[in-house]
Amino acid sequence: MRSTDDLTARARIRDAALDLFGADGPDGVSVRAVAAAAGVSPGLVLHHFGSKEGLRRACDAHVVAVIRGADPDVLSDTSGLAAMLEAAAPVRRYLARALVDGSADAAALFDEIVTLTGAWLAEGTLEGWAQPSEDPQARAALYVSWLLAPLILESHLARALDVDDLHGMDATLRYSRVVVEMLTRGVFADARALTAWDAVKKERESR
Protein backbone atom coordinates (compact mmCIF):
# COMPACT_ATOMS: atom_id res chain seq x y z
CA MET A 1 0.00 0.00 0.00
CA ARG A 2 1.30 3.47 -0.86
CA SER A 3 1.80 5.95 1.90
CA THR A 4 0.22 9.40 1.90
CA ASP A 5 3.67 10.84 1.20
CA ASP A 6 4.00 8.63 -1.88
CA LEU A 7 0.63 9.80 -3.21
CA THR A 8 1.55 13.42 -2.59
CA ALA A 9 4.87 12.94 -4.37
CA ARG A 10 3.14 11.33 -7.33
CA ALA A 11 0.77 14.26 -7.73
CA ARG A 12 3.66 16.71 -7.32
CA ILE A 13 5.63 14.95 -10.04
CA ARG A 14 2.62 14.91 -12.38
CA ASP A 15 1.94 18.61 -11.81
CA ALA A 16 5.58 19.47 -12.46
CA ALA A 17 5.44 17.45 -15.69
CA LEU A 18 2.26 19.25 -16.76
CA ASP A 19 4.01 22.61 -16.36
CA LEU A 20 7.25 21.57 -18.09
CA PHE A 21 5.61 19.58 -20.89
CA GLY A 22 3.25 22.51 -21.47
CA ALA A 23 6.15 24.94 -21.73
CA ASP A 24 8.68 22.91 -23.73
CA GLY A 25 6.92 19.78 -24.96
CA PRO A 26 7.66 16.24 -23.73
CA ASP A 27 10.57 15.82 -26.16
CA GLY A 28 12.26 18.89 -24.71
CA VAL A 29 11.98 17.81 -21.07
CA SER A 30 14.03 15.13 -19.29
CA VAL A 31 13.02 12.96 -16.36
CA ARG A 32 15.79 14.69 -14.41
CA ALA A 33 14.23 18.10 -15.12
CA VAL A 34 10.81 16.93 -13.94
CA ALA A 35 12.37 15.48 -10.80
CA ALA A 36 14.18 18.73 -10.04
CA ALA A 37 11.00 20.76 -10.52
CA ALA A 38 9.07 18.40 -8.24
CA GLY A 39 11.82 18.31 -5.61
CA VAL A 40 12.32 14.55 -5.84
CA SER A 41 14.91 12.17 -7.25
CA PRO A 42 14.77 10.88 -10.86
CA GLY A 43 14.49 7.41 -9.38
CA LEU A 44 11.24 8.34 -7.63
CA VAL A 45 9.80 9.62 -10.94
CA LEU A 46 10.59 6.25 -12.53
CA HIS A 47 9.26 4.42 -9.47
CA HIS A 48 5.87 6.06 -9.85
CA PHE A 49 5.57 6.25 -13.65
CA GLY A 50 8.05 3.75 -15.10
CA SER A 51 9.30 6.05 -17.86
CA LYS A 52 8.80 9.48 -19.37
CA GLU A 53 6.15 7.99 -21.65
CA GLY A 54 4.37 6.65 -18.58
CA LEU A 55 4.49 10.13 -17.10
CA ARG A 56 3.07 11.56 -20.33
CA ARG A 57 0.20 9.08 -20.20
CA ALA A 58 -0.48 10.06 -16.59
CA CYS A 59 -0.66 13.71 -17.65
CA ASP A 60 -3.12 12.81 -20.42
CA ALA A 61 -5.23 10.84 -17.95
CA HIS A 62 -5.24 13.79 -15.56
CA VAL A 63 -6.43 16.15 -18.32
CA VAL A 64 -9.28 13.77 -19.18
CA ALA A 65 -10.17 13.42 -15.50
CA VAL A 66 -10.34 17.20 -15.13
CA ILE A 67 -12.67 17.43 -18.13
CA ARG A 68 -14.77 14.45 -17.04
CA GLY A 69 -15.04 15.78 -13.50
CA ALA A 70 -16.23 19.26 -14.48
CA ASP A 71 -19.35 19.93 -12.41
CA PRO A 72 -22.15 21.80 -14.27
CA ASP A 73 -23.30 23.21 -10.90
CA VAL A 74 -20.05 25.18 -10.64
CA LEU A 75 -21.47 27.62 -13.21
CA SER A 76 -23.84 28.97 -10.56
CA ASP A 77 -21.05 29.36 -8.01
CA THR A 78 -18.79 32.34 -8.70
CA SER A 79 -16.01 31.24 -6.36
CA GLY A 80 -16.18 27.68 -7.66
CA LEU A 81 -15.98 28.79 -11.29
CA ALA A 82 -13.02 31.06 -10.53
CA ALA A 83 -11.22 28.24 -8.73
CA MET A 84 -11.87 25.86 -11.62
CA LEU A 85 -10.50 28.30 -14.20
CA GLU A 86 -7.46 29.05 -12.06
CA ALA A 87 -6.66 25.40 -11.39
CA ALA A 88 -7.05 24.46 -15.05
CA ALA A 89 -4.30 26.83 -16.27
CA PRO A 90 -1.58 24.11 -16.32
CA VAL A 91 -4.04 21.80 -18.09
CA ARG A 92 -4.66 24.45 -20.78
CA ARG A 93 -0.92 24.94 -21.30
CA TYR A 94 -0.38 21.20 -21.53
CA LEU A 95 -3.24 20.77 -24.00
CA ALA A 96 -1.92 23.56 -26.19
CA ARG A 97 1.43 21.81 -26.53
CA ALA A 98 0.08 18.25 -26.72
CA LEU A 99 -2.39 18.90 -29.51
CA VAL A 100 0.18 20.31 -31.92
CA ASP A 101 2.89 17.67 -31.49
CA GLY A 102 1.26 15.27 -33.95
CA SER A 103 1.69 12.16 -31.81
CA ALA A 104 -0.63 9.18 -31.49
CA ASP A 105 -1.05 10.08 -27.81
CA ALA A 106 -2.25 13.58 -28.75
CA ALA A 107 -4.72 12.13 -31.27
CA ALA A 108 -6.10 9.71 -28.67
CA LEU A 109 -6.40 12.55 -26.16
CA PHE A 110 -8.36 14.71 -28.62
CA ASP A 111 -10.65 11.79 -29.54
CA GLU A 112 -11.43 11.09 -25.89
CA ILE A 113 -12.23 14.75 -25.23
CA VAL A 114 -14.61 14.73 -28.23
CA THR A 115 -16.31 11.57 -26.92
CA LEU A 116 -16.76 13.07 -23.45
CA THR A 117 -18.06 16.31 -24.95
CA GLY A 118 -20.52 14.48 -27.19
CA ALA A 119 -21.96 12.65 -24.19
CA TRP A 120 -22.15 15.93 -22.23
CA LEU A 121 -23.99 17.73 -25.06
CA ALA A 122 -26.35 14.78 -25.52
CA GLU A 123 -27.19 14.96 -21.83
CA GLY A 124 -27.71 18.70 -22.16
CA THR A 125 -30.08 18.18 -25.08
CA LEU A 126 -32.19 15.80 -23.00
CA GLU A 127 -32.19 18.19 -20.04
CA GLY A 128 -33.06 21.18 -22.22
CA TRP A 129 -30.00 23.41 -21.69
CA ALA A 130 -28.41 22.50 -25.05
CA GLN A 131 -29.98 22.77 -28.47
CA PRO A 132 -30.50 19.56 -30.49
CA SER A 133 -28.25 19.00 -33.49
CA GLU A 134 -28.73 17.30 -36.84
CA ASP A 135 -25.13 16.00 -36.60
CA PRO A 136 -24.19 15.44 -32.93
CA GLN A 137 -20.79 13.89 -33.72
CA ALA A 138 -19.72 16.81 -35.90
CA ARG A 139 -21.05 19.28 -33.33
CA ALA A 140 -19.03 17.69 -30.53
CA ALA A 141 -15.85 17.65 -32.63
CA LEU A 142 -16.29 21.26 -33.77
CA TYR A 143 -17.21 22.41 -30.27
CA VAL A 144 -13.98 20.95 -28.92
CA SER A 145 -11.96 22.35 -31.83
CA TRP A 146 -13.41 25.81 -31.31
CA LEU A 147 -12.71 25.84 -27.59
CA LEU A 148 -9.15 24.55 -28.07
CA ALA A 149 -8.30 26.85 -30.97
CA PRO A 150 -7.25 29.76 -28.68
CA LEU A 151 -4.73 27.46 -27.01
CA ILE A 152 -3.21 26.27 -30.28
CA LEU A 153 -3.17 29.80 -31.74
CA GLU A 154 -1.83 31.13 -28.44
CA SER A 155 0.81 33.57 -29.71
CA HIS A 156 -1.48 35.05 -32.36
CA LEU A 157 -4.46 35.46 -30.04
CA ALA A 158 -2.27 36.93 -27.29
CA ARG A 159 -1.03 39.50 -29.81
CA ALA A 160 -4.54 40.30 -31.02
CA LEU A 161 -5.78 40.73 -27.45
CA ASP A 162 -2.60 42.57 -26.40
CA VAL A 163 -1.89 40.27 -23.44
CA ASP A 164 1.40 38.74 -22.28
CA ASP A 165 0.02 35.44 -21.02
CA LEU A 166 -3.06 33.97 -22.68
CA HIS A 167 -3.34 31.44 -19.84
CA GLY A 168 -3.43 34.11 -17.14
CA MET A 169 -6.72 34.49 -15.32
CA ASP A 170 -7.64 37.90 -16.76
CA ALA A 171 -6.97 36.84 -20.36
CA THR A 172 -8.75 33.51 -19.83
CA LEU A 173 -11.85 35.22 -18.48
CA ARG A 174 -11.82 37.68 -21.38
CA TYR A 175 -11.62 35.25 -24.29
CA SER A 176 -13.60 32.40 -22.72
CA ARG A 177 -16.44 34.75 -21.81
CA VAL A 178 -16.69 35.83 -25.46
CA VAL A 179 -16.77 32.17 -26.52
CA VAL A 180 -19.58 31.45 -24.06
CA GLU A 181 -21.46 34.55 -25.24
CA MET A 182 -21.20 33.44 -28.88
CA LEU A 183 -22.37 29.93 -28.03
CA THR A 184 -25.25 31.21 -25.89
CA ARG A 185 -26.50 34.15 -27.94
CA GLY A 186 -25.09 33.39 -31.37
CA VAL A 187 -23.36 35.80 -33.73
CA PHE A 188 -25.75 36.24 -36.64
CA ALA A 189 -29.01 38.10 -36.12
CA ASP A 190 -30.92 36.18 -38.80
CA ALA A 191 -30.76 32.86 -40.68
CA ARG A 192 -29.40 34.07 -44.01
CA ALA A 193 -26.00 32.37 -43.62
CA LEU A 194 -27.57 29.06 -42.57
CA THR A 195 -30.08 29.31 -45.41
CA ALA A 196 -27.25 29.84 -47.92
CA TRP A 197 -25.33 26.80 -46.63
CA ASP A 198 -28.45 24.63 -46.75
CA ALA A 199 -29.15 25.78 -50.32
CA VAL A 200 -25.69 24.70 -51.46
CA LYS A 201 -26.13 21.31 -49.78
CA LYS A 202 -29.58 20.83 -51.35
CA GLU A 203 -28.24 21.72 -54.80
CA ARG A 204 -25.39 19.21 -54.50
CA GLU A 205 -27.78 16.48 -53.35
CA SER A 206 -30.06 17.09 -56.33
CA ARG A 207 -27.32 16.48 -58.90
How would you characterize this protein structure?
The protein contains eleven helices and no strands. It is mainly α. The chain has a domain of 91 residues. It starts with a helix and ends with a helix.
Short précis:
The chain has helices spanning 4-24, 31-38, 42-49, 52-68, 78-87, 89-98, 104-127, 136-152, 154-161, 169-185, 192-205. The chain is mainly α and 207 residues long. It starts with a helix and ends with a helix.
User: What distance lies between the first and last C-alpha atoms, to the nearest angstrom?
Assistant: 67 Å
Work out the strand percent: under 5%
Number of helices: 11
Q: What percent of the residues sit in helical stretches (DSSP H or I)?
A: over 70%
In round numbers, the mean pLDDT is 85
Q: Topology as H/E string?
A: HHHHHHHHHHH
Largest sheet: none
Low-confidence stretches: none
Radius of gyration: 20 Å
Shape: elongated
Name the structural class.
mainly alpha
Count of DSSP strands: 0
How do the strands and helices of this protein lay out in sequence?
Elements (H helix, E strand, L loop, with lengths): L3 H21 L6 H8 L3 H8 L2 H17 L9 H10 L1 H10 L5 H24 L8 H17 L1 H8 L7 H17 L6 H14 L2
Features:
single chain, 207 residues, mainly alpha
